Amino acid sequence: MNSALPFFRNLDKIYKKPKNETCNSSNKNQVLLARRRNGQNLQGYWEFPGGKIEKNETPQKCLERELLEELSVKSKAGEIIVESVYNYESGSIKLIGIETVLLETNITLSVHDKIQWVTIKNILQYKLAPADIPIAKYLINKR
Questions:
Q1: Which of 8, 119, 4, 17 is nearest to 70 (CA)?
Q2: Fold of the domain spanning 2-142
Q3: pTM (global) more than 0.85
Q4: pLDDT per position in the chain (143 positions), as tens?
Q5: Which of 34, 98, 127, 130 has its CA 20 to 30 A from that of 40?
Q6: Which residue from 35, 14, 12 is spatially nearest to 2, judged by alpha carbons?
């Protein structure tokens, strides 16, 4: 099962490799991180990719739309698994973790310059966006 995270101004996601992708048993403990491209807010930081929740949009529909816009992959978002609020100097961000299945595996980047499948226990070895760190810690403790 894949996971994802929306929040106020931006929607972040955690996802694991799709079930239809060839992978060994250890891949069930991996998540997808994406690195913010130069010229973007938080450039060079790794994050659970995402975007903005629009008016009258559920977190699940937002997540599906954002995955399509940012990574060019279709997905099916399910239940919420975790929520976290992070306070930046510019304002607060609420992240909502959602179980999500990626329906495609061919990813095309738009606001990121790199993606990486990362073992959950190794997430904190990456330079994560500050708002993503509490979610990463939750995933590590949940394993």
A1: 4
A2: Nucleoside Triphosphate Pyrophosphohydrolase (3.90.79)
A3: no
A4: 333 443 333 333 444 443 322 222 234 577 888 999 999 888 999 988 777 788 888 888 988 898 899 899 898 888 888 888 888 888 888 888 777 777 887 889 988 999 888 888 999 999 999 988 988 898 889 86
A5: 98
A6: 14
β-bridge mates for residue 32, sequence order: 117
The span from the CA of 114 to the CA of 132, in Å, is: 17
- The three-point CA angle 127-129-130 to 5° equals 110
Q: Which of 141, 140, 142, 97 is nearest to 121 (CA)?
A: 140
The one-letter amino acid at 134: P
